[in-house]
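Model: You mentioned two targets. I'll fold them one after the other.
Researcher: Yes, keep them separate.
Model: Target one:
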Amino acid sequence: MNEFALLLGSTFSAGTVLAIAGLGLLINERAGIINLGAEGLMLVAAIAGFATAVGTGSDLLGFAAGMGAGAALAAVFGVLVIWLNTNQYATGLALSLFGSGFSAFVGIRFTQERLGDRFKFEIPFLADLPLVGPALFKHHPMVYLAVALALGLAWFLYRTRAGLVLRAVGESPESAHALGYPVRRIRLAAVVAGGALCGLAGAYLSVIYTPLWVEGMVAGRGWIALALTTFATWRPARILLGAYLFGGVTMLQFHLQGEGVQIPSQWLTMLPYLATIVVLVLISRNPTWIRVNMPASLGKPFFPGH
């Protein structure tokens, strides 16, 4: 049972990276913008956050640097696709490639760096409970922040006027524009906010979860987070559930290796990505379900006055 509690606890930690990034991408897509550059954003944010944490000794400054790097790159992406009307898919892929190369170049001098001992967080009294204590109440505050973000975003999207406007821009930017809403500025704000959350996920990965810098350390999490938005049919609570599902599959491979299960390590490493493909295939069997929930203008350019 203790092993199960540890597996559950590590699942929440692993899923947090995917949850925060997935929620950021959800904001983008609800506004009608699809950003395939999440992997690159997270890599640049990871090195920015790690370098800042090493230089200052402050995790909070590391998180701020990661969010700033993610927001800045997302702003460039937003200007290109929203004002210059470049292709969203091609621009996102270019951003992903740029982030991968740039982070590898900048991170060369940080490959031998190590952060100091990480402070162990736990909630008093609750952390001492058997089973549920280690599983639920001994996490970094960022794990609980991911849950709060999902709940807050669900409230924002479905209970506030601003959330209604954001969804309207994603469904029919022409109608929103006709009603007098600044569609381009709203989309840019959504892209920057989504980039900041992707940046926070990258910084959490390098500063807390690992904590070290290795070239390409995001290791496909940006792509899985992108798949999560479809898996969750653009709903915040389902993104949280999907993130923990994939986080659990990721940690299961290490658990099985630790138990000495005789399965080739390559197969175990493939598990999270196989799970992603299987889930997407199952969802794709019902295209009507996706079509009903998907923002109608997702990936489509908007030309005011046309």
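Model: Target two:
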Amino acid sequence: MRGAGKVFIIIWAVLMTVTTLGFAGFEVMRILGKSNLVSKSATSTPMMTQMDMSAYENTGTYWEDDWVQYNGNVYDYNDDITTFLIMGIDKDDETVVKVEEGTDGGQADALFLLVLNPRDKSIKVIGINRNSMTDVDVYDEYGRYMTTVIAQIATQHGFGNGMEESCGYQVKAVSNMFYQLPIHGYAAINMSAIPIINDQVGGVDVTVLEDLTKWDKSLKEGAQVHLVGDSAFYYVKARDVHVFGSNENRLERQRQYLKGFIDAARETTKENNNAAVELFSAINNKMVTNITADEISYLAPYISSFSFSSDDIITIKGENVKNGKFEEFYVDDDDLYKTIIDIFYEKIDVAG
């Protein structure tokens, strides 16, 4: 079973488990869920810059492997954090379908890291420019690894079968770009699902950031619009590929839309306890995910109480350049490194 269809059944299974086994059984599932999430990631901690430990050699301090020295301070990786990769796939198909090995898996036009931190009960979202130049693994038509090239990160999902295999490739590329950051799960959603997702929460309010009347007459720059149906699709997906920097503008729109969507989703959930189940059911043939029942049971009690604001949606700085027909975004390595420290690490006191 694939995609959100699996999630729909999973949520039902969790509810049944709570009812029949009671609180103790649910706690067992939560423990298993956390364990499974940790084991699912290919890495346990980011591979940050090697530390200069000379200042601590005679202090009796034991230097932990996941400590990082940055700007004169020491930071410890927060291993309670759970990180998911959310992908918007450039596919207009009505259903997610397996494709032949090659380059038809669909590019990841939207890439966001959803970061859940139970220690401070916060949600952070990191937007990744789809044109970020990074290591991309190349596979042939038989699925055999050929080489690794520097290319736009969105192209990685195009390799593979368009299903779990392509998602695995994309997760690896993003993890490597973020210094082998642990990523505990993923959801890849066809862009054709946007109108459905949008309307399930009653639509989203935005102030239009740029003129998009080429695609939808209502999307005039500066207009206050309640997005419904295809208007939401065009607002999140459309860009003029002939205009330099159009992807950065679209990423900013996606960032704005995501904040509005989360606000709308929270209001919908208050009014309808089954909203999440109904949403997953509505897109069950348009999404691929690897989330399981015990993982949901671990996460569910926390997320509703987590804080989230527009300031919690972060984008990495960098430089956008034109190379022939295509745009290339070169990530600011210092800003990327600082972002990882700020979100995934905690400052600690070490005697020195």
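Researcher: Noted. Anything on target two?
Model: The first strand starts at residue 67 and ends at 70.
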